[in-house]
Amino acid sequence: MPEEVLTRRDFLRRICGICLNFAFLSSSTIFFSDRKAHSKTLLNNSFEPSYLRLLTRNELKAKAEALWEIMESCELCPRRCGINRLKGKSGFCRAPGATLMVSGFSPHFGEERCLVGYGGSGTIFLTHCNLRCVFCQNWEISHLGRGSKTTIEELAEMMLTLQKLGCHNINVVTPTHYSPHIVKALEIAAKRGLRLPIVYNTSGWERVEILKILDGIVDIYLPDFKYWDSEKAAKYSSGASSYPELTKKAILEMHRQVGVAKPANDGILRRGLIIRHLVMPNDVAGSEQVMEWIAKNLPKDTYVNIMSQYTPLFKAFDYPEIGRRITRKEYEKVVLKAKKLGLTNLDIQGFQWLVKSKSKEEAIS
Ligand code: SF4
Q: Is there an atom of ligand 1 within 6 Å of 77 CB?
């Protein structure tokens, strides 16, 4: 065999490669062992999710079955399509009959700080949606249904995997039309050791009758309160004119079940209500009225996340009044109003990056 000639450049390249490999292996060992240790810490704390009580009384199974039966003439959400999903029919949400579809699952670090902590929020993105907003940022998942068919067993495994990864909660995103599947999977996962709180990450447009079935299952409700005005709701969310009326009722029921969100000493939230409100351009959301309603109907320390990240996506450009981002002034106005009303538990996002004054586009309104 010819003798290998090692040039100075090759030598340096190999040394660099060895160093990089070593650095990667060490850091990944530290990372994964750290996550394992963290996961154990989570399970050792004194928190017990509500659903465990239902599990021991065999009520979790009964609730899952009650929700499942509703799909026979589906009324899981305010659309109340009445179609038989158990026979493969699809309603307004376009969920394929009783088949569950999941777009992805992973620790998520972009949610509220008390949900993210240091291990992340264990998000499971479910496909399709009963609201279908024209400005949806996840339109490929919610409108097009991009995802994979998933069994209940696999959904349970996802929950357990997120727990193993050290997440602080199981955050089911757009859960309404898959609530029967979620509760069925939860029963399996809880029997196998799941101990994380369930975050019900919803548009807020829920039927109180269905929420009552979820009583004792969900520890953290995370609803949006998108619109004050029913005409606006209908215009931007596929005719959902009952959105303001039903969302108010739903939020009151959620608060009745889980109360005010109070993070524990470690900063992690394990029970309570977080309301999200997305400030929209030209006050399309009716933000000040939304704040007024919260201040009047819920405790002043209700956790309200006033969100500044509205971005015109998907079909938003078909509606000139929502075809831009909000201005700093628009955001500040809502925050000042909320403070003036005495709301004390506000999650105020960074808004320095928002434009200061009215842009040319804003003049469209
Ligand atoms: S969950 Fe889907 S099928 Fe059922 S009522 Fe709502 S939109 Fe219709």
A: yes
Distance between CA 318 and CA 65 in Å, rounded? Answer: 42
Q: What is the pLDDT of residues 122-181, one digit of tens each?
A: 999 999 999 999 999 999 999 999 999 999 999 999 999 999 999 999 999 999 999 999
Minimal-distance CA residue to ligand 1 atom 4: 74
The CB of 325 under 6 Å from ligand 1? The reply is no
Q: Which domains does the chain have, with CATH numbers?
A: 99-364 (3.20.20.70)
Q: Which residues, 6+ apart, have CB-to-CB distance to 250 below 8 Å?
A: 204, 205, 206, 207, 208, 211, 223
Which are the contacts of 84, defined by CB distance < 8 A and separation ≥ 6? 71, 72, 73, 74
Q: How many residues does the chain have?
A: 365
Which among 70, 75, 238 is the best mutation to test ligand 1's pocket, defined by most ligand atoms within 8 Å of the CB? 75
Q: What is the pTM of this model?
A: 0.87
